[in-house]
Specification:
Elements lengths: L3 H9 L2 E7 L6 H10 L9 H5 L7 H12 L5 H17 L2 E8 L1 H6 L4 H19 L2 E9 L4 H11 L8 E5 L11 H9 L3 E6 L5 H9 L5 E4 L7 H9 L3 E4 L1 H6 L11 H6 L4 E3 L4 H4 L3 H11 L3 H14 L4 H17 L6
Parallel strand pairs: 1-2, 2-3, 3-4, 4-5, 5-6, 6-7, 7-8
Helix pairs in contact: 1-15, 5-7, 8-9, 16-17
The structure holds hypoxanthine and zinc ion.
Length: 343
Amino acid sequence: MVSPIISDAIRTMPKAELHLHIEGTLEPELAYELAERNKVELPFAGLEDLRQRYHFTNLQSFLDLYYELMNVLRTADDFKDLVLAYLSKAHEQGVVRSEIFFDPQVHVENGIDIDTVLDGLLAGTLLGRERYGISCGLIPCIVRDMPVQSAEEIVDALAPRASELLGLGLDSAEVGYPPELFGDVFARAREIGLHLVAHAGEEGPAEYVSQAVHDLKVERVDHGIRSVEDAELLNTIQERGIALTCCPLSNLKLKVVNDLDELPLQRLIDSGVSITVNSDDPAYFGGYIADNYDALAELGFTLPQLAQLAENSLHAAFVDDDERDGMLKAFSLWAQTHKDLLV
Ligand code: HPA
Ligand code: ZN
């Protein structure tokens, strides 16, 4: 167990969450509440039955449940409420900046208008900023196991509102859907001013990380842990200052590793790569962001090491210089008030 003093310090440490799927923050209780509100029939015997299903054997077994539950999200208010529920938890865990993924192709396939999705998510982030002081950005992700044409269509649909978005990402079932398939889609996203990120090297090989870096020209890699298998790639990632958004509890729950101590985080850090800590899909994986930091503390990471990871997240966030300076000042203030724990 992490000592309460360290756990409290982790929770007040200013940090950015850079790998968070808003649909993955849908807690079972809220899923049932929205299902009732929207008269959506869920294929479970009830809340308890649903709760029993949170055991996964791999990424796909999780995605099956995750996509099923997304069907309860129907109105702009649903999306707004989902964002607010997440931000209230993130606030308690020291998040000052959140760059939020969502899967627009799936919502459109569910019959929801893209503007409804965007209006609801944006309303949630604006209210969240007022209530909790958390600054947010939205990153739609291409669902890589849907046809490339669908990816092109969703970028076309999002383009008129590109100024309201932060970036473009790539998620869903990885193996068999290499990043190189999406070179043109990402080039277009770059033209319309979006930052670029992609999931790679979670279940897929280092080669997929290499494609994300070289073919998609991403600025961060989500997960990326299998980069450790390719020394040349590690050099490139380090030289270009590409941060990896790691999600320890996700990797454990999806059986990417059997034990947290199998994660190559220290080896990645030793090769000079910027590592950040994130929760991915916290409602499904047993913890929000500070719980992920706690898990690393239990593995033996010290508070100074964890503070470095939080500081990395502030440097890797897609914010302007003024905002970054403000976040780094808040971080310095925290470090000053916790200096006895940081020696
Ligand atoms: N990996 C890939 N796609 C996802 C994930 C993930 O961990 N969560 C939601 N979509
Ligand atoms: Zn993810």
